[in-house]
Amino acid sequence: MNPRLDLLHPYPFERLRRLFAGIKPFYSGYEINLGIGEPQHPTPAVITDALQRAMPLLGKYPPTAGTPELRATIAEWLGRRYAVTVEEREVLPVSGSREALYAFAQAVLDPADPGVVLLPNPFYQIYEGAALMVGAEPFYVPTPEGNGYLPDWSAVPEEVWLRVKLVYVCSPGNPTGAVLGLEDWNELFAYADRYGFTIAADECYSEIYNEEPPVGALEAAKAYGRSHERLVVFNSLSKRSSAPGLRSGFVAGDPTILEKFLLYRTYQGCAPSLVVQAASVAAWNDESHVEENRAKYRSKYEATSRFFDYSGFPLSATVPAGGFFYWAKVEDGDDENFAKTLYSAYGLTVLPGTYLGRDAGTGNPGKGYVRIALVPELSACESVFQHIGHLYDEIREGHWPRDPSQ
Asked: What number of other Cβ atoms are within 10 A of residue 39's Cβ?
């Protein structure tokens, strides 16, 4: 067996399963999962109709590079969204961004000298797994509240920068929802120019935002007169189009890197089926369903943000610039106990922030936070916050925990 498998940490949802093992919620009938970031809005008809029309294509193998139509559609979407010019050779369709983010490190890093991979802390766990499995050393860049939950690059020592080969960055961030602005991108570009590493920009939450559309990496590169050299972005239809089961995304950017990445994927990886690619063309060409999707998340934030102002409410948070999470601070600092208490009472699920971070010498930055995914319908999201408030009223009044015999 590959010994590097032993370096991988238990995935957050496995840790959550263990935390809840053997617990039977006291109140039944309230089970709502706000722990996993799986969109639950109905997949739009523009996608399901296209899937039905394309069913005869199941009898054909898909090209690894994707169909010319899909590559052109994605390039055109990037042009509309970010006002950038992207050639078809700078686009590679993939089966969702998750596998591409992992595979990218395996393709671009030299196993004989994989160096250091920077990733934000807390973070999407695939970044760390990708680094560990190629033999690289992860370096966890703090994203402190005082820095707007953005990566604090000044915390990276010079001796580490000299060994950096790849940087994962996520905007809007998971779990924080923080968004990099033009100046933030320019700061990262300056480091990339100085040290020669590749930037892997995860933009999977780019279309879920509350006010202004987030600046993209390619957009920032254009603003500063840069090429796409050593810059690659990842995006998908999972969040944008409420289609996580479609497993459809893309990688775009440096054509030299993508040429090698395509070679890698010829041997490792599976292109989306032609049915999925046809539906993806329809999805990227339609913005009306995205606007409706965005409006639903905005309504959920509007309905739930008021709870943080209530006296005695055990969480504090602000509406993030992007994404569909709350990165909420737990009043007593014990995120695992908060999640366990909430599940024990009502069967409601939130994710302890500890599971999304690593202790890099100054403590786990996720400790004391919970990630709350506003993915169910509005009424369900509001119900969860009402139950949290009610539960902690009971705790303060000494009525919880309840006697199981009651």
From this structure: 22
How distant is the alpha carbon of residue 349 from its chain centre?
18
- Is residue 183 exposed (0-12), middle (13-18) or buried (19+ Cβ within 10 Å)? exposed
pTM above the 0.85 mark? yes
**72 CB burial (10 A radius; 0-12, 13-18, 19+):** middle
Give the 3-state secondary structure of residue 61. coil
Q: Which amino acid is at 282?
A: A
| Structure confidence by residue, pLDDT tens digits, 307-330 | 999 999 999 999 999 999 999 999
Q: Domains in the chain, start-ordered, CATH in brackets?
A: 3-42+289-396 (3.90.1150.10), 45-286 (3.40.640.10)
Classify burial at 340, counting beta carbons within 10 Å of its beta carbon; exposed 0-12, middle 13-18, buried 19 or more.
middle
- What residues are paired with 327 via a beta bridge? 371
pLDDT number for residue 405? 57
123 DSSP assignment = -
111 upstream amide cis, omega within 30 of 0: no
pLDDT tens digits for 42-72?
Answer: 999 999 999 999 999 999 999 999 999 999 9
With a CB cutoff of 8 Å and minimum separation 6, the contacts of 278 are 50, 51, 53, 54, 57
Between CA 217 and CA 222 the distance in angstroms is: 9
20 sits in which H/E element: helix 12-20
- What lies within 8 Å, CB to CB, of 55 at 6+ separation is 275
* Three-state secondary structure call for residue 92: strand
Q: What is the CB-side half-sphere exposure of residue 337 using CA atoms within 13 A?
A: 9
- Backbone φ and ψ for 173, nearest 5 degrees, come out as -75, 150
Both tokens assigned to 178: 């923080």
What one-letter code names the amino acid at 209? Answer: Y
Q: Are 308 and 317 in contact (CB under 8 A)?
A: yes
